[in-house]
Amino acid sequence: MSDRGRSGDKGMTPARPPAGGGARLLLSRLRALMANQAQDPHRLDRVVELIGNTMVADVCSIYLSSEDKSLLLVATQGLAKEAVGRTRLAENEGLVGLVSATARPLRLTDAFSHPRFSYRPETGEDPFHSFLGVPILRGGRVLGVLVVQNRTERAYDDEEAEALQTVAMVLAELVSAAADQLSSGVRQTRPVAMTGRTLNEGLAIGKAHLYDPVVPPARLFAADPDAEEQRLNDALEALRTSIDAMLTRAGPVLFGESRDVLETYRLFAHDPSWAGRLVEAVRSGLSAEAAVDRVRREHRARLESARDGLLRERLHDLEDLENRLLRQLDGNDGGGREAPPGAVLVASRIGPAELLEYRDADLAAVVLEEAGAGSHAAIVARAMGVPAIGGLTGLVTRVEDGDTVVVDGESGTIQIRPAADMVANYQARIAISDQKLEELALLRDLPARTVDGVEVDLMINAGLSFDLDHLDEVGAKGVGLFRTEFQFMASETMPGLDEQATFYRSVIERAGERPVVFRTIDLGGDKVAPFMGRREREENPALGWRALRMALDHPYFFRRQLRALIRASRGGTLRLMFPMVATVEEFDAARKLLDAEMDWAVKFGRDLPNRVFVGAMVETPSLAFSIDKLKGKADFLSVGTNDLMQFFFAADRDNARVISRYDILSAPAMRLLLRMRQRADEAGLPITVCGESAGRPLEALMLMGLGYRRLSMQASRIAPMKLLIRSVDMSALTPRVQAAVEGGEGTIRNQMLSVAHEFDLMI
Ligand code: PEP
Ligand code: MG
User: Fold this and answer.
1) Of the residues 35, 101, 220, 614, which has the maximum number of CB atoms within 10 A of its CB?
2) In a shared domain, residues 209 and 226
């Protein structure tokens, strides 16, 4: 880098810090400059001049990052003017490169002694001892570096460093707006393709809408800094109060460290240094929003480079808190969120509750950076019926608000700023799939009956009340799996008895005559409710303290859910099932709690359901081999193939590397499934499959071939499944599947595919 500079006309200026309130002075001058010279192509020259003069620096320079990450000198006061537009520093070169790479300010009294100092003799610079460089940050990206230098060994103080960072933030908006005039990579224009993980299938094209609140450049400055400081303090106070209230409402600690996240928020929210920096920034003339944004940019930039998991979590927490504060300032501390219709929601991470707030926003798709949190959001995205992709590392720094984004939920890819022919291509594909959907809708009132008259009951998996709207749309027989934990996952605090009962009642009412099978809470593993906080890390969470195990260890909490279910089903039929039952004893224990709740309702004269059916989910091999023992205890069974297969093959269902090695379409898995169906028949227990496999064409054919007649799946799979079933001849299919069960041990996917083609099946 040009860590040395040749003095301009100023000559030897005695180094001295700016007068108190330097940031304020700087900003007010900058603001005037921005207002007066909006169209001036030499604006950046004026900016460096202004900063240099106000800070009494011998040199002030701006370097902007290009798409190849090199840093181009675009404006300077104090260095040779000829170097502007020519001097280009490689990524990581010298002190400027260091500021850019670390995204953090660098303050040196004697730059020469720094190991990263590099001297560019071709610029003929004179030695400059002191150096203060700050990153120009926007949306977590480093757009460039702003540098001041002095010839003497001057110690820049905290106030000056803060002031320069504040200026750098304003500068980020300025250079971004002027990006077209600068041949730099400030505004991203190139198409970018990214691959992640499909959370919900489907295709979409839309304009990016960034979830993290965006502060418009028009709101950078405060008209009245004193009033603005008051606004900021009010918002901070409201934020603290709301977090304190959440902590109080969270009630008794349920899950050990359940209050951790809120406690962390509270810690940050009450941290005087965090608030102090915000107040400082407002005092310098920024609006309250811009002040929060300034600090948030730094955290996001650090997050981009942070590798340490714990540090990343903390930075995420801070960012979450800053986003909350921005919403508070915006007067939007809850309630429905808005986005332009047809937008693609882009977020680093989003909780199910936040995503739910967009349910009326008519989103085209959801794309997320973090896959972990995405798995909860995926559930909501599915319920909202929008394509969703997660695990897109670095996403938010590559997309700008308003960019066109193509979302391909079939391949798990997104295209940011795609070329016109790519868009046209996707538009054609979307048109074809829309047409297909219209054709499928015609099947709504037709039965799922094979050509030789075998009827299959198709039901939907649900978890949110608006999932129930799909029942009519697709013509399903009922809800085969209602995941009650979603209500808990979408709630900041533990839903109370009334809240739960009202919700279950609304689900039952929306389903009308059709049955709904409620699965009792299945939290733990990868499913975390906000009020559970960060729990003790388990080596194998899928095999850990989850689902029924957790419920049985917390009978007070579990009984509350059972009571809510009983209350919601008064005068009707209650159907419920327990998840992750590993032993018959566990089933007995859960049933005993249900009986106790029924007794309690009788004793206190509460309205009761007319009938109660209790089922067990078969998700563990141990229970698969105990089906006969459930005779007379359970009323029905439901096979959760997602979990059952992960335990059967000992392969984590969320780990693509291992899960793709094993196939449910292989003899060992099919033998297990066949045996389970036979034992269920012998015990007189109706059996349903409600794992993802039930909604996949080849897997569903296999299950039908093994004798399963009840399948529960994502609502969008019902119509294609009906179409498939209506073209199947069971008398031809069954012997082929039976033969495969007896055949070799490997996957029979290709075999099944050729059977499907042979019978001309629509898969
Ligand atoms: C399953 O495991 O197959 C299942 C339906 O439950 P979940 O996917 O909610 O664990
Ligand atoms: Mg399961």
Assistant:
1) 220
2) no
In this structure, the answer to whether residues 57 and 113 fall within a common structural domain is: yes
Q: Does residue 695 line the site of ligand 1, with CB under 6 A?
A: no
Q: Is the C-beta atom of 3 inside 6 A of ligand 1?
A: no
Rounded CA gap, 238 and 327, in Å? 11
Provide Rg for the chain, Cα atoms: 31
281 located within any domain? yes
The number of CA neighbours under 13 Å toward the Cβ of 485 is 24
Residues 324 and 340 occupy one common structural domain: no
Low-confidence residues of the chain: pLDDT under 70 = 1-21, 37-39, 121-126, 177-189, 217, 246-262, 332-337, 351-353, 371-377, 490, 492, 525-537, 654, 656, 762-763
Ion ligand 2, residue ranges at CB < 5 A: 619, 640, 643
Continuous segment of H or E residues that includes residue 268: helix 260-269
Asked whether 51 and 79 are in contact (CB, 8 A), the reply is no
Q: Is 299 a catalytic residue?
A: no
Which residues, 6 or more positions from 385, have their beta carbon under 8 angstroms from its beta carbon? 470, 716
Contacts of 242 (CB under 8 A, 6+ apart): 328, 333
Q: Concatenated DSSP letters for 470-495?
A: HHHHHT-S-EEEEETHHHHHT-SS--
Asked if residue 116 has its Cβ within 6 Å of ligand 1, the reply is no
Provide the sign of the torsion angle of the four alpha carbons 30, 32, 34, 39, taken in this order. negative
Instruction: Determine the Cα–Cα distance for residues 462 and 712; give it in Å rounded to an integer.
Output: 10
CATH of the domain at 374: 3.50.30.10
The per-residue pLDDT for 526 is 63
Question: Given this model, what pLDDT does residue 39 score?
Answer: 66
Quickly count: other Cβ atoms within 10 Å of residue 54's Cβ.
21
Last residue of a domain, one of 314, 329, 344: 329
> Does residue 11 lie in a domain region?
no
Q: Kindly give the number of the ligand 1 atom that is closest to the alpha carbon of 692.
A: 3
What does 36-69 look like in DSSP terms, one character per residue?
HTTT-TTHHHHHHHHHHHHTT-SEEEEEEE-TTS
Say what the pLDDT of residue 536 is. 64
601 and 649 in a common domain: yes
For residue 209, the cross-strand partners are: 345
Within a domain: residue 1? no
Cα–Cα dist 269/557, whole Å: 30
CATH number at residue 130: 3.30.450.40
Alpha-carbon distance of 606 to 567, in angstroms, equals 8
- Is the minimum distance from the CB of 526 to ligand 1 under 6 angstroms? no
Q: Is residue 5 domain-resident?
A: no
Ligand 1 atom 8 nearest Cα: 642
Number of domains the chain is built from: 4
Nearest atom, ligand 1, residue 641 CA: 3
pLDDT in tens, 381-411: 877 889 999 888 888 888 888 999 999 998 8
Closest residue (by CA) to atom 1 of ligand 1? 640
Instruction: Return all residues near 354 (Cβ < 8 A) that are at least 6 apart.
Output: 211, 337
535: its two tokens: 């729990």
Domain boundary (299, 329, 359) is at 329
Q: Quote the domain boundaries for residue 550.
A: 442-758
Would you state the pLDDT for residue 183? 45
Is residue 376 annotated as a catalytic residue, yes or no? yes
